[in-house]
Specification:
Elements (H helix, E strand, L loop, with lengths): L24 E3 L5 E3 H9 L23 H14 L27 E3 L4 E3 L1 H9 L8 E2 L19 E3 L4 E3 L1 H5 L7 E3 H109 L4 H12 L19 H29 L17 E3 L5 E4 L19 E2 L8 E7 L6 E7 L16 E7 L3 E4 L5 E3 L7 E7 L4 E6 L4 E7 L6 E6 L12 E4 L11
Antiparallel strand pairs: 1-2, 3-4, 3-5, 6-7, 6-8, 9-10, 10-21, 11-20, 12-17, 12-21, 13-14, 13-20, 14-15, 15-16, 17-18, 18-19
Helix pairs in contact: 5-6, 5-7
């Protein structure tokens, strides 16, 4: 077998004159080798016949003959330089031939017996050494030692199913003799089949994540468009409010100025009268003073009665001029602003409800949760109070004391909306409940106990079951109630659908599944017999995004 010591070196087969691989190589008496044409041309150009390398002089021009061994080796090197792709030089990541020197060729096979890798040129002499049965050739690998058993130094050719490791034949007969073993080829086929399944799963996960990525990007884009639309709506609302405030302020200033003008005109008239009377009184005072200095007794007594008679002057004791400090005008203007603001808020609530209605879901009542006194419609959209208990199993999901029922659907993320017709009922409950609520015995409605609900009692008392409960003074009695759940945002809101107005919003943090919650409440005196009806949402197809 060829050993690494016999590796061909391209430098050793180069002519020192032309610096190329030998062509018709010859040897001089001093032992150096040259191409025949090169050495003869060299000697023809010099007066002295000597070796170009060692400068040994030959008295007689040597007779040169082609060295067939060197010529054969040189020919192999020339073939290697013109080798096909499988004999090309090693590229990064490829296995080099262990027997090439200088320019390493790419290995085409590795031998597990010889523990070496061979290019196409060196593989042929390797195969001629002994028979092919003495060699185990595999695709070229760089870590041939990993293919051998560390304990027995034998080729790994079996796979232990129990220990999930590669073993040699000796291992299967000793340490693993009680274990099931299969050929490496068979195990590879099985593992490759599993690998294909894993690849398919990974590919599916990639597709799922790409889809989710696209969904998230779409949500971000929708959020951007929604934020832009909301900014435009808010700008419009605030612009209207600012205009209303400026207009109201101008009206108030005009009222104040007009009131001041009225006061000023009245004061001017009074001042004119007062000044006239003062002039007349000053004249009488002067006459009285002159009369008091007269020495004519007859004139004095005759003139005094006329001067002492009361003058036709006005009684000014009750005459006042006051500046009106009342805030009635300001109060009136502010009241108008309040009404305008309320109108704008109602407009916003209408826009909000339109947006929320885009989150409509199909809600159906769950008969497995309904109290035995409740009667559900076949389509699961209506519930009313019955007259007697039904003979139905008291399963863990069912309410057995209060007349409640839950929806089949549950929510653990996202936004959801549905509408319920309450009509002229005088008592009812609506909202959502968490999955772990107590369904047996008496129940207290509060968000701390897992209920976020709106209730009607006594025909006109609307309560939000917060802690403490909140009485809601509704001016309009809702005929249809919208329920909106924003699980991630932690909100449960209620709306008067017809009035397109907001009723109440709970704010909380949700950690469990939420279920729609309904109660037609008790039928006292047969005044509350109408059912609660889950009605389809009339979508408003508008370009308004949540």
């Amino acid at each position: 077998m060829t050993s690494p010591s016999s590796i061909l070196s391209e430098e050793e087969f180069q002519c020192s004159i032309c610096l190329d691989i030998f062509t018709r190589p010859v040897s001089t008496p001093c032992g150096h080798n040259f191409c025949m044409e090169c050495i003869e041309g060299y000697w023809d150009s010099t007066a002295v016949c000597q070796c170009p390398l060692c400068k040994e002089t030959f008295h007689r021009r040597p007779v040169l003959r082609v060295n067939t061994f060197i010529a054969g080796m040189a020919e192999q090197l020339k073939k290697m330089s013109l080798s096909p792709p499988e004999e090309r030089s090693t590229q990064p990541g490829e296995v080099p031939c262990d027997f090439c020197t200088g320019r390493k060729l790419r290995a085409v096979k590795s031998c597990l017996v010889c523990m070496a890798s061979y290019c196409q040129i060196h593989l042929e002499p390797h195969q001629r050494v002994g028979t092919m049965k003495t060699h185990i050739l595999i695709e070229p690998v760089s870590n041939i030692e990993d293919r051998l058993c560390k304990k027995h130094h034998r080729v790994l050719e079996l796979f232990c199913i129990q220990d999930q490791i590669c073993v040699c034949q000796f291992c299967s007969e000793t340490d693993h003799h009680r274990h099931a073993t299969v050929s490496l080829e068979k195990e590879c086929r099985r593992k490759k089949a599993q690998l294909r399944e894993t690849e398919a799963e990974v590919q599916q996960k990639i597709q799922d994540r790409l889809k989710k990525l696209e969904e998230i990007r779409q949500v971000v884009e929708l959020s951007r468009l929604g934020a832009q639309r909301e900014a435009e709506d808010s700008e419009q609302v605030f612009r209207a409010l600012v205009c209303s405030i400026v207009r109201s302020q101008a009206e108030l200033l005009e009222l104040i100025e007009e009131k001041h003008r009225v006061v000023a005109r009245r004061a001017e008239g009074l001042i004119e009268q007062l000044e006239q009377e003062i002039t007349e009184l000053e004249k009488r005072r002067t006459e009285l003073e002159q009369l008091s200095h007269t020495e004519d007794h007859i004139y004095f007594l005759q003139s005094l009665p006329a001067l002492r008679s009361p003058s036709p002057s006005k009684d000014w004791a009750d005459v006042t001029v006051t500046s009106d400090l009342s805030l009635e005008n300001l109060r009136s203007v502010v009241s108008k602003l309040e009404a305008t603001l309320r109108e704008e808020l109602n407009s916003l609530h209408g826009i909000e409800l339109k947006r929320i209605q885009q989150c409509a879901v199909d809600v159906t009542l769950d008969p497995n949760t309904a109290h035995p006194l409740l009667i559900l419609s076949e389509d699961g959209k209506q519930v009313r109070m019955g007259n007697k208990r039904q003979a139905i199993p008291d399963n863990p999901e069912r309410f057995n004391h209060v007349v409640n029922v839950l929806g089949k659907e549950n929510f653990s993320s996202g936004r959801h909306y549905w509408e319920v017709e309450v009509g002229e009922k005088i008592e009812w409950d609506l909202g959502v409940a968490r999955e772990s609520i107590n369904r047996k015995g008496a129940i207290t409605l509060s968000h701390e106990r897992g209920y976020w609900s709106l209730v009607l009692r006594n025909g006109d008392e609307y309560w939000a079951n917060a802690n403490p409960p909140v009485l809601l003074p509704l001016s309009l009695k809702p005929q249809k109630v919208g329920v909106f759940v924003d699980y991630d945002g932690g909100q449960v809101s209620f709306y008067n659908v017809e009035a397109r107005s907001h009723i109440y919003t709970f704010t909380d943090t949700f950690t469990e599944k939420l279920y729609p919650y309904f109660s037609p409440y008790c039928n006292v005196g047969f005044k509350n017999t109408a059912p609660l009806i889950i009605s389809p949402v009339r979508h408003c197809y508008i370009p308004i995004l949540l």
